[in-house]
Each structure stands twice: as C-alpha cells, then as structure tokens.
Design goal:
By secondary structure, this protein is of the alpha+beta class. The protein is built from 5 helices and 9 strands. The protein has a single domain, classed as Gcn5-related N-acetyltransferase (GNAT) (Aminopeptidase). A 7-stranded mixed beta sheet has the order 3-4-5-6-7-9-8, with helices on both faces. A two-stranded antiparallel sheet has the order 1-2. The longest helix is centred in the middle third of the chain and has 16 residues. The protein binds coenzyme A (COA).
Length: 190
C-alpha cells in the first residue's frame, strides 16, 4: 500500500490521520461493539443497501453469516480497532459468465470521513484483489448518483466511470440511479 500522512479537510475535528496505522484484517466477534457504531449511524447507512441495525443480534449476524459469505471481507482498522469494513462479493452469484468479476463495497464510521482513509483502503484492495483472487479480471462498484464522496474515492483509486444505471435498485424504499465504475487487472495500478 502506498502510505502517506494526509491532512484532513479544514474544519474537521481531527487534523490528521496517519494512514500508516490503517490495517485490514478479518472481522471477528470481538469487533461487535465497534461495528455497531457505524451500522447504527443513519449518515453511514444512507447510501447503503442494508437497513440500520437495531440490535447486537444484527451485528452478530453480519459477522457470522454475512461477512463470511463474501468472496473477501476485512475490517478496516486503526490500532487494531475496527472503524469500517471493505468487501468483495460475487457480481452475479451463480452466473458463470461473470465469475471473473467481483463487486467492491466499503463503509467507514463517520468520525473518520474526509481523511483519506477510504481512498487508501480501496487502492490497497485493488492490488490485493487481483493478487489474492488471481482469477479476477474486473472489479466493479455501484454508487448512488448522490453519493459524491464514494464516487470520488473510486475515481482517486483508478476506477473508470462506465455509466448510470437508471432506477437500478431499491434502497431505503426508493428506486435509485446508480453509477457503475470498474477497474480491470490490466489497468495501471495507482
Ligand atoms: C464514502 C466514504 C467511504 C468515503 O470515505 P472517506 O474516507 O471519507 O473518503 P476520502 O477521505 O478517501 O475522500 C476521498 C475524496 O472524496 C471526497 N469526499 C469525501 N466525502 C465527500 C462528500 N460527502 N462529498 C463530496 N466529496 C467528498 C474527499 O474530499 C476526497 O476528495 P479530494 O481528495 O479531491 O478532496 C464514507 O463517506 C462512507 O463510509 N460513507 C458511508 C458508506 C458509503 O457510502 N459507502 C459506499 C457505498 S457505495
């Protein structure tokens, strides 16, 4: 991973975060209290397909039954405390014609937004994905047209915007236009 110290935006409570402290590791049950911080935060869930968690059972279910079914899933950690999660899932489960493609997803506790964490993590995951899951040729990401932060993260990490999928999926009870972006194993790594 390219590791730098990046200053946060003016006005942010903490001025800097040392990106060298960010690590990715498997999520486990001892992360439950940390996971509940972002999964119960409306700001975080706004552009995510999952509904706000209402109990620790939801968190346990994620750690034990959902995260384990992704192709690849890691906790984003600072000083070994989980501050978010990043995953790769099958783009079209059961469709062999798409088994060289995976969908990227990421989420970060709002306290850590705007400090370069997601960009740093996504760049790292692109490298790791094409290395550890060497059969993959394409990573794709679907981002709500109103989720400007996530679009910028992908752009900075080398993803190419491919288009807008109109009313592609229902999130929070509403049909949403989604931007699809991708990076290929042959693209220059940032
Ligand atoms: C989207 C998210 C992952 C961004 O994480 P982050 O660590 O704050 O992103 P970064 O600090 O790496 O920022 C990357 C770029 O996006 C910009 N950005 C971040 N949040 C932004 C926002 N809300 N509006 C506009 N730009 C934003 C940053 O300024 C930076 O661009 P710059 O370097 O040109 O200034 C984080 O806000 C999040 O977890 N949101 C909730 C979950 C979510 O939306 N996940 C993605 C679903 S597709």
């Amino acid at each position: 991973m390219e590791i730098t110290s990046i200053s946060s935006k003016p006005g942010a409570k903490e001025e800097r975060i040392d990106l060298t402290q960010i690590t990715l590791r498997p999520l486990n049950l001892s992360d439950l209290d940390d996971l509940m911080i972002w999964t119960t935060d409306e700001k975080v869930a706004k552009f995510c397909s999952w509904e706000l968690y209402t109990s620790k059972d939801d968190g346990i279910n994620f750690i034990e039954n959902i995260a384990t079914k992704f192709l690849w899933c890691k906790a984003i950690c600072i000083n070994d405390r989980a501050i978010g999660c990043v995953s790769l899932s099958s783009s079209s489960p059961g469709d062999k014609s798409r088994n060289k493609c995976a969908e990227l997803g990421y989420v970060l506790g709002s306290k850590y937004w705007g400090k370069g964490v997601a960009t740093c993590v996504v760049k790292q995951v692109v490298k790791v994905a094409f290395c550890e899951l060497s059969y993959l040729e394409r990573l794709e990401a679907l981002v709500d047209v109103e989720n400007a932060g996530s679009q910028r993260v992908l752009e900075k990490a080398g993803f190419q915007k491919e288009g807008v999928l109109r009313k592609y999926l229902v999130m929070k009870g509403k049909s949403r236009d989604m931007i699809i972006s991708s990076v290929l194993f042959t693209d220059p790594q940032l």
